[in-house]
Design brief:
28% of the residues are buried. The strands form 3 sheets. The protein has a 5-stranded antiparallel β-sheet. A 4-stranded antiparallel β-sheet has the order 3-11-8-9. By secondary structure, it is α+β, with helices and mostly antiparallel strands. It is 17% helix and 28% strand. The longest helix is centred in the N-terminal third of the chain and has 10 residues. It has 5 helices and 12 strands.
């Protein structure tokens, strides 16, 4: 998969994070009997499909920090008023909506690394066990993090990190000049209520 991912980064303009709407050459790895799809099925105990993909590229030119938070929105193809889904937001031109929390709770997130991730170039930090606490109000995030062991997700090229999507996580600004490219993919087994559809296509 890494050559296909390298090609994707080489063909795309430099940006902190690009939201992918069509998997293209990455599809065979992330769907069906692909290697990454197999990892997801083994971890989840069932088949799941990729429903959101973001190509992160942290470097001296694109350096940012992300505070502690819980992912609570999904990327959908078009807006439709469905009970339990809302509020709506637009991220880099892509429609996102907050679903019932059970949808988020059943999702799995994988991060596929192209570059070494060291303590100096902003590894993802996760608050261990926080995914078991369900929906965490923003006012409670700091106290939950303070009460949780925190792990830094260090990696080598080709390593894959997997975590429950609702886990609290954060990332600091990089203190390194090294590039840190990571493809982050959310997986779900849920079929959204019509007419809502996942935005990501093979």
């Amino acid at each position: 998969m890494l050559p296909a991912l390298e090609q994707y980064y080489a063909s795309a303009p430099l940006a902190p994070g690009r939201r992918i709407t069509c998997l293209g050459a990455l599809g065979p790895f992330l769907t069906g009997t692909g290697a990454i799809a197999g990892v997801v099925a083994q971890l989840a105990g069932r088949a799941m499909r990729p429903v959101r993909a973001i190509a992160f590229d942290k470097s001296p030119q694109t350096n940012w920090a992300l505070g502690w938070h819980q992912d609570r929105t999904i990327n959908v193809a078009a807006r439709a008023e469905v009970e339990g889904y809302g509020p709506w937001t637009v991220k880099q031109g892509s429609l996102h909506v907050e679903p019932p929390f059970d949808v988020i709770a059943g999702m799995l997130t994988l991060r596929i690394h192209l570059d070494p991730v060291t303590p100096d170039n902003a590894p993802l930090e996760i608050a261990l066990g926080s995914h078991r606490k369900g929906y965490i109000a923003e006012s409670d995030v700091a106290s939950v993090v303070a009460a949780s062991p925190v792990a830094a997700c260090l990696a080598q090229p080709g390593n894959v990190w997997a975590y429950a999507t609702p886990i609290l996580h954060a990332s600091q600004r990089s203190r390194s000049t090294a590039r840190r490219r990571v493809l982050q993919v959310d997986f779900s087994a849920v079929e959204l209520p019509a007419p809502l559809e996942w935005a990501l296509r093979a």
